[in-house]
Amino acid sequence: GNNGKGGKFAFTPIAPVDASVDAFNVPEGFDWSPIIRWGDPIFADAPDFNFAQQSPAAQAGQFGYNNDYTEILRQPNGKKGLLICNHEYVNPQIMFPAAAASPAEAAERRAIFRNAVGMSVVELERDKKGQPWSYIRGGKLNRRITVDTEFELTGPLAGSDFVKTLADPAGTKVFGTLGNCAGGTTPWGTILSGEENFNGFFRTNGTSVEDRRYGLGNSATGMGWEQEDPRFDARGEDYRNEPNRFGYIVEIDPENPNSTPKKHTSLGRFKHEGANVIIADNGKVVAYSGDDERFDYLYKFVSKNKYKKNNKAHNMTLLQEGDLYVAQFAGNSAAEIDGSGSVPADGAFDGSGSWLPLVVGGKSAIAGMSVQEVLVYTRLAADKAGATKMDRCEDVQPSLQTGKVYVACTNNTKRGLPGQAAADESNPRSENRDGHVVEITEKRNDATATSFSWNLLMLCGDPAKNTEAYFSGFPASQVSPISCPDNLAFDTQGNLWISTDGAPSVIGYNDGLFKVGLEGKNRGNVQQFASMPRDAETCGPVIHDDESLVFVAVQHPGEDGSYGANTSFFPDYVAQGTTPAPGQVRAPRPSVVQIFPKS
Ligand code: FEO
Ligand code: CA
Ligand code: CA
Ligand code: CA
């Protein structure tokens, strides 16, 4: 193995774990424990989790399901912290010991699910800096955001005809946030969260060009919420616009549990994976965001107004007004790209690019579309602009040390198929199963620039079986196999950390967390730090290498199982024939996990 280098925080990479194994693995010398699990009570009056006896009211006071984006904010003394987490969706078939026995029970479960999605804010504590955390039941800042939480729409769509409904004729208030996938933490201490696969929650007429472009259709939804809440049935006039009220970047202030979270329409409406912010040299803030759909796009927002240090109230208005762009990539070896993913003759997958304007200076840059139309039907505006069709942009994150922007393209199995876009230098593989990572350098390293250069940091894969796998020239035989990059994070040394989603069905190993060097001779060196339990996706991650602590949100462990036929027993691994301790169950529970050095 290749020993990790990264200041004090070094580790020996773990071996990849076969996808049939249900275990959570960390490097030698490290240990792990859950901080909080699905169902753990976060309010003083919320009940302990009881797998066999759940209720909507209990779930509303407990940690939600399928933890995704995670942040851990620390107070200066290191003894108190705040955990903020997205709950993207639910897995009904593994959340109960048996299938619902009656229509009434099925309806009650749907109410549980509506309280299991959204977000959580939970206080943390410990005796001293560097130790693992415990969560505080009843912490003053603890909060659950569910389908019933009020949000305020901001920006050009607020109050517009595109977002008015029977329940909200003014078009300014939305209840709930849906499909919250990745996110970001702003320099002013708020949390951004991306509304990703919102379309699946709505039944619509499904006939308009716009509906089809957003995957909205006229069939019963998987969740079935339209059966008790009319706003999820958008076929009639009353709630025709309800789906237009989802698909945004939302912002919450975790330090104020009574604040109304915002949905910022200026960043456009699409399947936002998340958004990450950097302050440009001129003080404007720039947010990068990907649309996670095959052949969809990469976007950038530039605020009109400037960041003011120590003025949170002002900074919380910055995402309400500004310019929106979409990326167009040009390769410099186009003739050599054949979809096989082989490195071009000039030695690199690289080229130049432009940020094509969608909205600039408060005016639409798209002929035939108003500003409001561009922001509510952003995908159609980007189609008209001529943006580059990408291989599913997941996290898009600028390095705050170098300003370079990293784009995780998770995979695109349809690239190059008949009738689909062919491979190009920025998405160079046909039927791209393993995904790749793009590195963007803005012109003059100015985050507000309208042009950039780019290259591919890596083409993912298992180098032992896949000769196309490419790691910026780092010897492929020395890296950990990696597939389907999803979430990104940085450590204090400037290394990129990548978590994966979908590796088991591609390279046969459980998903994991990987550290990647970006500079010098360590550039492209992929080292696996953690491996997830069976069927689980690696989310989060949060890297506090200054304290030798790493955090991951373990999402959907045992997802491929069913009632009474669990494929995972994470995180408590309570074996058949033993008595679970209070709070433990013989079923998987999505959990936020901390990884720390053994004492
Ligand atoms: Fe919810 Fe794009 O992953
Ligand atoms: Ca090239
Ligand atoms: Ca994701
Ligand atoms: Ca994903």
Q: What proportion of the residues form beta strands (DSSP E)? A: 25-35%
Rg: 23 Å
How many helices? Answer: 7
Low-confidence stretches are: 1-6
Would you count the extended β strands for me?
Answer: 29
Mean pLDDT: 96
Spatial gap, N to C terminus? 24 Å
List cofactors, ions and other ligands: MU-OXO-diiron, calcium ion
Q: The biggest beta sheet, please? A: 10 strands, antiparallel
- CA-based shape: globular
The helical percent reads: under 10%
Structural class: mainly beta
Description:
It contains seven helices and 29 strands. With 599 residues, it is mainly beta. The strands form five sheets. Strands 13, 14, 15, 16, 17, 18, 19, 20, 21 and 22 form a ten-stranded antiparallel sheet that branches. The chain has a six-stranded mixed sheet with strand order 8-7-12-11-10-9, with no helix packed on it. Strands 2, 3, 4, 5 and 6 form a five-stranded antiparallel sheet that branches. The longest helix is centred in the N-terminal third of the chain and has 14 residues. The protein is globular and about 65 Å long. InterPro entries: PhoX. It comes from Arthrobacter psychrolactophilus. It holds the Pfam family PhoX. This is Phosphatase.
Task: Give descriptors for this structure.
29 strands, Phosphatase, PhoX, binds calcium ion, 7 helices
